Amino acid sequence: MDAILLQILNGLDKGSAYALIALGLTLIFGTLGVVNFAHGALFMIGAFCSVTLQRILTLSVEAIDETKKDFLGNPLKVKTPYVEQWFGPETGQAIIDWSVPLAILFAIPVMLLIGFIMERGLIKHFYKRPHADQILVTFGLAIVLQEVVKYFYGANPIPTPAPQAFVGSFDFAPLLGLDTSLAYPYWRLVYFGFSTLIIAAVFAFLQFTTFGMVVRAGMADRETVGLLGIDIDRRFTIMFGIAAAVAGLAGVMYAPINSPNYHMGMDFLVLSFVVVVVGGMGSLPGAVLAGFLLGILESLASMNEIKNIIYGIDQIIIYVVAIVILLVRPRGLMGRRGVMEE
């Protein structure tokens, strides 16, 4: 039982990342009708926003410290981060320690800007083109972004530690009345909570704001909304930027869990598209539901007890579930009637 509960927690962790990326993909497809294969690259760029801010905060000045000597008795050169000089050793070190959460503030304007540039500079020219053309051009863009990141940051994963306050694990066993230990890393719990907060914020924005109501109306009937004199294209451009920001924030907070590397976007991209299709193309609740569902199934399938019965099932379980669901219900779990059913 404790092993199953642990895998469910792992599934919620994976599902959080799947759901956030799939949510952004669904926002773009639902508003613009564009199949964006560069969305995984936005997740990767968000993770490297954490890396970038950490490097900025650790920029140091080198000075001779007379109180420290080498083995010959000569004064040592000591590197001191600028933030420690400006704010003092304790405050400066705290800022560096909390670089990942602080990267949220850094990533939001960066991701919004990248989203606007992508949509205005490239995506808008493919609105009325076939989905095959959209896939090819956005996949090509993803490869370009991946190689740019590889050029500047290298091919090796870059460790990006979480704040010291969240190092360690929380034991769920006493809460559940279990005799054995059920420890789970604090930061993964933080990531799940953060993902839930972002998902709730997106749904609240679409449901309770005038801007969101117009966007939802435009998703249902773009031409009618345009005839009412509303500049729906401008609002959809803003939604593309918001979708990019959601993917970026997912990457920012995922950096301590999986050290950022240049191909991490591609690793999540295919799985996220499967999540979108299973949930239902254009369905935001479906994307979130499918993200958590498939994340939990993937984690449960990784248990040795199950892999010993069906070797390699953890590698294909998501695709098997997707095939079964699409055979039974082509529009996905919560897709609109007629979508992918012609």
From TrEMBL:
<protein>
    <submittedName>
        <fullName>High-affinity branched-chain amino acid transport system permease protein LivH</fullName>
    </submittedName>
</protein>
<dbReference type="InterPro" id="IPR052157">
    <property type="entry name" value="BCAA_transport_permease"/>
</dbReference>
<keyword id="KW-0029">Amino-acid transport</keyword>
<keyword id="KW-1003">Cell membrane</keyword>
<dbReference type="Pfam" id="PF02653">
    <property type="entry name" value="BPD_transp_2"/>
</dbReference>
<feature type="transmembrane region" description="Helical">
    <location>
        <begin position="102"/>
        <end position="123"/>
    </location>
</feature>
<feature type="transmembrane region" description="Helical">
    <location>
        <begin position="269"/>
        <end position="297"/>
    </location>
</feature>
<feature type="transmembrane region" description="Helical">
    <location>
        <begin position="309"/>
        <end position="328"/>
    </location>
</feature>
<feature type="transmembrane region" description="Helical">
    <location>
        <begin position="15"/>
        <end position="35"/>
    </location>
</feature>
<keyword id="KW-0813">Transport</keyword>
<feature type="transmembrane region" description="Helical">
    <location>
        <begin position="236"/>
        <end position="257"/>
    </location>
</feature>
<keyword id="KW-0472">Membrane</keyword>
<feature type="transmembrane region" description="Helical">
    <location>
        <begin position="42"/>
        <end position="61"/>
    </location>
</feature>
<comment type="similarity">
    <text>Belongs to the binding-protein-dependent transport system permease family. LivHM subfamily.</text>
</comment>
<keyword id="KW-1133">Transmembrane helix</keyword>
<dbReference type="InterPro" id="IPR001851">
    <property type="entry name" value="ABC_transp_permease"/>
</dbReference>
<feature type="transmembrane region" description="Helical">
    <location>
        <begin position="189"/>
        <end position="215"/>
    </location>
</feature>
<keyword id="KW-0812">Transmembrane</keyword>
